[in-house]
């Protein structure tokens, strides 16, 4: 018996040792990948949020207080008129009475795609196609929830829900590899990180859009093979090619112009925008005032940002805010800008660090909201009644981020309690937020918190992953810093092999990107 026990113990030790090895297949299959929660969308009431079920068959409503499921808003099993097996994503109407259900999604480039959308009526649970004339791109509800605009084949179309879902064409000159209306060309999508270039006015009476004329941009071609994901059977025997407009450095970009379309009169106007001939229009957005269309521009060097306020009827454009930088303007200056009825909150590096600034809607600077030798990473919202701003920043270390709030008198409070990387999704009323945390030693931890920073519920803790990795003989991420020959201090991290022997030589895999707006060294 003693011999059998020793043999059994030895076998168990061998099995345990084998289990502690990480294989290449483990890495490729994501065996040790942390779980996360994706696609959370806050609801209007400030008390709930929605999420797609894991099987992509339902839209589920959750409580911000408890994190528990309280209702099913959409279910493919109970939807009437059309039978869907599953869906890919969804868009709620501004009043939450309708939902656009996204199906048959087909990617184009990094952010662009076509899809077949259905309009779901929450009250009577009916589904009907958004359009029967082909797949759509970037559909958008009007603020009053009575209209939906979308792009098909480089042209903008409009659906009027109160008129039997009648479909009309807003633009007619769109053509592949020549003219795009309401969607960006390849370089805009790739470098300015967006896929929709049109918007409704606050009173739902007008549509503004950017027109991209890429007819003079040189073509680029690369071979296309059968492949697997997705499989292109037409290239089984012979390869084909993909040809598109691709501006290399130094050649011409698309010529851009901004237009407004009056839905009632069907009159189209071109905005009198004094943008450079080689300049950019990375964003347009209507403010709460239907007579004020915000048009954001950059020069070709991207170190001068101008925010114009355009009147969509007179077409007159006036500069409201100008920001300049020696090197370049960060994308957040136009991607994270937020318009309130009487104010604008935006970011700038004008004092040497990326901070929040408050302006009047007319462009007068009210004050610099945050100050100090740190960078604001994300603006999360402004509680106007309490005059409290919420944001994330890397105060204390560029390797880490935390959630903060600051009041009108400059009193700052750190809300997140764990050291590492924190991000937040706030409820509409800013009473609650979902905090996503991780560090070099801790996989994703997601908690529900109130706006004082108190954790109320843990939504995800990755305990199982922590238990699995605790059995592995793994190296740890070690942070270090060094100074360059120019005296600039840089941060880095390295992982040495388990059981590292400093007297031995080891092969090294080095990864460094250093592209603008990227950061590889993070806790």
Notes on the protein architecture:
- The chain has 523 residues and is mainly β.
- The chain is 8% helix and 41% strand.
- The protein has 5 helices and 37 strands.
- Strands 13, 14, 15, 18 and 19 form a 5-stranded antiparallel β-sheet that branches.
- The longest helix has 18 residues.
- The chain starts with a helix and ends in a 28-residue tail after the last strand.
What labels would you give this structure?
37 strands; mainly beta; single chain; 8% helix; 523 residues; globular; five-stranded antiparallel β-sheet
The number of helical segments is 5
Q: Number of DSSP strands?
A: 37
**Overall geometric form:** globular
Low-confidence stretches: 4-19
Assign the structural class, choosing from mainly alpha, mainly beta, alpha/beta, alpha+beta, or little secondary structure: mainly beta
**Major sheet summary line:** 5 strands, antiparallel
Distance between the termini: 51 Å
The fraction of residues assigned to DSSP E strands is 35-45%
Percent of residues in helices comes to: under 10%
The value of Rg in angstroms is 26 Å
Oligomerization category of the chains in this entry? single chain
Mean pLDDT: 93
Question: What's a quick, concise take on this entry?
Answer:
The chain is mainly beta and 523 residues long.
What's the structural blueprint in terms of helices and strands?
Blueprint: H1 2-19, H2 24-29, E1 41-42, E2 48-52, E3 58-63, E4 69-75, E5 89-92, E6 98-107, E7 113-121, E8 126-129, E9 137-141, E10 147-152, E11 155-160, E12 166-169, E13 179-181, H3 186-192, E14 198-200, E15 206-213, E16 219-224, E17 240-245, E18 255-262, E19 268-270, E20 280-286, E21 293-298, E22 304-310, E23 317-324, H4 332-335, E24 338-339, E25 343-348, E26 355-360, E27 365-368, E28 376-383, E29 388-393, E30 402-407, E31 412-414, E32 421-426, E33 432-438, E34 445-450, E35 455-460, H5 463-470, E36 477-483, E37 489-495
Antiparallel strand pairs: 1-2, 2-3, 3-4, 5-6, 6-7, 7-8, 9-10, 10-11, 11-12, 13-15, 14-15, 15-18, 16-17, 18-19, 20-21, 21-22, 22-23, 24-25, 25-26, 26-27, 28-29, 29-30, 30-31, 32-33, 33-34, 34-35, 36-37
């Amino acid at each position: 018996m003693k011999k059998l026990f020793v043999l059994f113990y030895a076998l168990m030790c061998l099995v345990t040792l084998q289990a502690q090895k990480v294989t290449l297949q483990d890495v490729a299959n994501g065996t040790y990948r942390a779980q996360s929660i994706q696609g959370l969308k806050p609801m209007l009431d400030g008390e709930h949020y929605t999420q797609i079920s894991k099987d992509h068959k339902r839209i589920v409503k959750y409580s911000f207080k408890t994190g528990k499921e309280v209702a099913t808003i959409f279910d493919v099993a109970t939807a009437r008129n059309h039978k869907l097996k599953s869906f890919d994503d969804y868009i709620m109407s501004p009043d939450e009475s309708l939902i656009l259900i996204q199906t048959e999604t087909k990617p184009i480039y990094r952010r662009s795609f076509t899809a077949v959308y259905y309009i779901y009526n929450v009250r009577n649970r009916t589904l009907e196609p958004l359009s029967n004339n082909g797949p759509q791109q970037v559909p958008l509800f009007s603020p009053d929830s009575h209209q939906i605009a979308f792009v098909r084949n480089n042209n903008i179309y409009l659906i009027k829900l109160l008129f039997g879902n009648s479909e009309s064409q807003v633009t007619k000159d769109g053509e592949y590899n020549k003219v795009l209306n309401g969607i960006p060309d390849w370089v805009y999508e790739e470098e300015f990180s967006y896929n929709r270039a049109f918007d409704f006015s606050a009173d739902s009476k007008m549509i503004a859009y950017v027109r991209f004329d890429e007819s003079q941009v040189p073509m680029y071609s690369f071979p296309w093979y059968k492949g697997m994901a997705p499989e292109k059977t037409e290239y089984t025997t012979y390869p084909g090619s993909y040809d598109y407009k691709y501006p290399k450095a130094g050649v011409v970009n698309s010529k851009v112009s901004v237009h407004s379309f009056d839905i009632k009169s069907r009159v189209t106007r071109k905005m009198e925008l004094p943008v450079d001939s080689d300049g950019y229009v990375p964003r347009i957005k209507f403010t709460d005032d239907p007579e004020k269309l915000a048009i954001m521009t950059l020069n070709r060097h991207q170190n001068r940002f101008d925010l114009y306020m355009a009147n969509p009827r007179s077409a007159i454009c006036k500069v409201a805010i100008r920001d300049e930088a020696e090197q370049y303007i960060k994308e957040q200056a136009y991607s994270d800008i937020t318009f309130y009825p009487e104010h604008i909150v935006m970011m700038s590096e004008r004092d040497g660090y990326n901070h929040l600034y408050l302006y009047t809607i007319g462009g007068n600077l009210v004050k610099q909201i945050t100050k100090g030798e740190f960078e604001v990473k994300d603006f999360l919202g402004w509680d106007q009644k309490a005059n409290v701003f919420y944001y994330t920043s890397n105060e204390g270390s560029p390797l880490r981020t935390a959630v903060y709030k600051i009041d009108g008198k400059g009193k700052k409070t750190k809300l997140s309690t764990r050291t590492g990387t924190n991000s937040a999704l706030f409820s509409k009323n800013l009473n609650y937020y979902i905090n996503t945390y991780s560090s070099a030693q801790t996989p994703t931890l997601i908690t529900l918190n109130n706006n004082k920073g108190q954790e109320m519920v843990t939504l995800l803790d990755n305990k199982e992953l922590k238990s699995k990795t605790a059995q592995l003989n793994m190296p740890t991420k070690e942070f270090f810093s060094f100074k360059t020959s120019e005296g600039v201090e840089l941060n880095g991290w390295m992982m040495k092999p388990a059981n590292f022997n400093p007297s031995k030589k080891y092969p090294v895999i080095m990864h460094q990107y250093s592209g603008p707006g990227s950061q590889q060294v993070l806790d």
